[in-house]
Write a structure and sequence with these properties.
The protein is an alpha+beta fold. Helices cover about 40% and strands about 15% of the residues. The protein has 14 helices and 7 strands.
Length: about 375
């Protein structure tokens, strides 16, 4: 009977990884605040934050998040506004929502402790094969791989495997091959160290989007793509679907220093977050004033705030924001308003979903996605 590991081309070279990478990792790994703590919450939180996000950007967020919510009980109990504010700017907000859903499930089912196996971890919201493998191996020593883009890339180059890494079957084949490698090598090799070493090699040496640093790679002498000069041609990855382009007009409506914000719907892009109100397409000055008038009637009617009257309008510099599958091309209008009846302002909208927020509230209470940062005063 043929072993499953044979499905991955060049599999025999994968045994180099546990032989060489842990020693290299001990000398050259980066010091990061979630490494070496022995805390499964740290591993989990960092892995979720690191999805689609650079390490340098995550460090500050991780430290702030941990200070505010040091463990699973605090995460599970956190209110939504505070949770979104802690995550503000990291993007992909479904990550933090799933993080809290999983924390609540851990409190209810697992007595507040993360399960220790990859199979059990995958039952939690937001935890897929990679994250489950990372937590189970690093925090609990289970001999399972964690296959992300870095690992797919270094394995494709070492073995000169030309299968498309965007295909699920390619990733599954590598996971199967590496699982056998892990089971043979661990112990004495610690699976968490091996996984982190592979991630580190891909992030710092066998890098994407440019020439890898083969002169400092611990497996360069056995790397087939290095020998063939094909490093930059690998891995093979089919082109992603073109992003959908959407044109939007952002309305920066201000009463003095206070900014009009609105809560987005509970479903769809940026679900449940606060935004600068926007309209589809590019609006003329007249259209922007008309749209602002509708918004001002809404905020006055919902919150009991006074009626407002526009007194100034100015075109803002255009901006662009790229999501995973959508790209916003944005124009903006600054519209300054004054109260018609009273200068009193009611900032607490009591759940109305639209309000004027003062600068301190924008800094500390309401989470605005980075898509709108170019238009904030």
């Amino acid at each position: 009977m043929q072993r499953a590991v044979s499905e991955y081309e060049g599999k025999e070279l994968l045994s180099l990884l546990p032989e060489r990478l842990p020693v290299w990792y001990a000398d050259y790994h980066r010091e990061l605040p979630w490494r070496g703590t022995g805390n499964s919450y740290d591993v989990w939180l960092s892995e979720i934050m690191l999805q689609q996000t650079r390490v340098a950007a995550v460090i500050e967020y991780f430290l702030r998040f941990k200070e505010a919510l040091p463990g699973i009980p605090e995460l599970a109990a956190c209110d939504e506004e505070r949770l979104m504010k802690l995550w503000e700017g990291l993007g992909y907000y479904s990550r933090v929502r799933n993080l809290q859903k999983a924390a609540r499930k851990v409190m209810e089912i697992y007595d507040g402790c993360l399960p220790e196996t990859a199979a059990e971890l995958r039952k939690l919201p937001g935890i897929g094969p990679y994250t489950a493998g990372a937590i189970a191996s690093i925090a609990f020593g289970e001999a399972v791989p964690a296959v992300d883009g870095n690992v797919l890339r270094i394995c494709a180059r070492i073995t000169e495997n030309r299968k498309d890494i965007a295909l699920p079957e390619t990733k599954k084949g590598l996971e199967t091959a590496l699982l056998e490698v892990f089971r043979e090598a661990c112990p004495p090799v610690h699976p968490g160290i091996l996984n982190q070493a592979m991630m580190e090699l891909g992030a710092t040496v066998c890098v994407p989007n440019g020439p890898p640093q083969c002169d400092v790679c611990p497996v360069a002498d056995r790397c087939r793509s290095h020998a063939a000069g094909t490093e930059e041609a690998l891995p093979v990855k089919s082109a992603a679907r073109p992003r959908k382009i959407e044109q939007r007009t952002i309305l920066l409506v201000m009463d003095g220093e206070n900014v009009l914000i609105r809560k987005r719907p509970d479903r769809g892009l940026l679900a449940g977050l606060w935004e600068l109100p926007a309209r589809d397409g590019f609006l003329s000055e007249k259209q922007a004033l008309e749209a602002a008038g509708v918004l001002l009637e809404e905020v006055s009617g919902k919150t009991g705030a006074p009626l407002f009257e526009p007194v100034f309008i100015k075109k803002l510099s255009p901006a662009r924001h790229i999501f995973t599958h959508i790209e916003w091309e944005m124009e903006g209008w600054l519209i300054r308003v004054v109260p018609v009846i009273s200068e009193d302002r009611i900032s607490d909208a009591s759940g109305s979903g639209i309000l004027f927020a003062d600068p301190s509230e924008l800094r500390t209470v309401y989470a605005l996605p980075s898509a709108f940062s170019a238009f904030l005063p």
